[in-house]
Design goal:
two-stranded antiparallel ribbon, 84 residues, 2 helices, flat, alpha+beta, single chain
Length: 84
Amino acid sequence: MKLLRWRLGLKGCLARSSIGKSGGIALFWDDTLKVDLITISNKLIDIEVQESPSSTQRRISFIYGEPRAEDRHLMWKLLQRIRL
């Protein structure tokens, strides 16, 4: 991920490795944004982001959905737990 971050020319990075060939998630951003991590897992990055000191801080959740239908209820439980 570090190599990709530098190839893209971005300063910020949050990442979780995959387990085998599934899962894993990464978020990259440039240094014009202020990013505060709320939580991170192998399928979720939950942040607060601010474009400038005078702008409103916003909460954004990035999700790698569960590919197995029988486990999708786990993702819904996670989303219910992190909601505002």
